[in-house]
Specification:
The chain is α/β, with parallel strands linked by helices. Helix content is 19%, strand content 35%.
Length: 257
């Protein structure tokens, strides 16, 4: 195995998959061993992950300790399906970190999470020194079956958890937005919302924009602002170099739609 993986003339650092835990039918939690020096990151920065034989896809680092790095994969296409089922001992390429750090002040945080935003929430939870008496994560999926053991993982990282889905078996019957009917976002030092644009837009009138961060979930191709694929609609911002995290009021005032 060569020390440097190359994809589209870009040098990727090599990593080996040393653990793969399936959390639900759509989520897998991977542990990677870094085989080369790899820069440190801060949330909500992300990396490009290349699976040989497939394309490179953007992934948020869920956590890191020394030469071990964790990512959470949500199946969304052929590459993520391959990554979610990858065998231990397989090699992949990592490039980054990309994007800008955005760290809110305070010590009490509310995380509103949907889709692949779980990894970003885990990254923040571990970086901000959360404990279950200071941090709360509302995790939403459409189906109860998709949730699996993701809430237990969130709690292991240090946050209390509430689930929301269109199933009576979740803590809240409905969406992440519906869960706010029984939560006061103003009680927290910051609100960090991670998920698809539709979910984030539905939160605009529900949370204090001045102390809320939106971490956008979008398709990224190059990761360095050249291709234009991740231009945030209605703004001059590119997710890969200006984000992926923005203060909510900043996005709204920039014309995000």
């Amino acid at each position: 195995m060569r020390n440097i993986l190359r994809h589209n003339s870009t040098a990727y650092s090599s990593a080996m998959v040393v653990g793969n835990k399936r959390l639900s039918p759509v989520y897998s939690f991977l542990e990677l061993e870094l085989l080369q020096d790899f820069p440190l990151h801060k949330p909500p920065q992300f990396i490009m992950v290349w699976v040989p034989g497939y394309e490179a896809v953007p992934m948020t680092i869920a956590g890191r300790r020394g030469d071990r790095l964790w990512i959470l994969v949500k199946i969304a296409g052929d590459t993520t399906r391959r990554l979610a089922g990858i065998e231990e001992g397989s090699f992949i390429g990592l490039y980054g970190p990309l994007g800008k750090p955005l760290i809110p002040p305070g010590n009490r945080f509310l995380f509103l999470v949907g889709g692949s935003g779980v990894a970003t929430a885990l990254n923040y939870i571990s970086s901000l020194g959360c404990s279950q008496d200071k941090c709360l994560t509302v995790f939403g999926c459409w189906k109860y079956s998709e949730i699996g053991s993701v809430p237990e993982l969130i709690e292991e990282f240090g946050s209390a958890t509430i689930t929301a889905c269109l199933d009576r078996r979740c803590n809240v019957y409905g969406t992440v937005v519906d869960a706010l009917n029984n939560i006061d976002p103003g009680e927290y030092d910051a609100v960090i919302a991670c998920g698809p644009p539709g979910m984030l837009k539905s939160l605009i009138d529900k949370i204090p924009l001045d102390k809320s961060i939106f971490v956008l979930d979008s398709y990224v191709k190059c990761g360095i602002g050249l291709c234009g694929s991740c231009l945030v609609p209605g703004t001059r911002y590119y997710l890969c170099i200006d984000g992926p995290g923005f203060y909510a009021r900043e996005l709204v005032e920039a014309g995000w739609h």
